[in-house]
Amino acid sequence: TMKLFAACWSIGEPAPYLHLARTFDLVEHERSRLKITSMLCNMFR
Predict the structure, then answer these.
(1) Which region, left, alpha or beta, applies to residue 12 given φ > 0 means left and ψ of -120 to 50 means alpha?
(2) Is the pTM of this model over 0.70?
(3) Where are the domains of the chain?
């Protein structure tokens, strides 16, 4: 089950490295293309 979280940084600030690393770790272990697409779309919000 995926959980959506609001960003913990302000608009205009760069995304923290940990946010990117955790998303890529989740993507690495996921087989469903739809879930991967959803994860990446949420990461770029």
Answers:
(1) left
(2) no
(3) 15-45
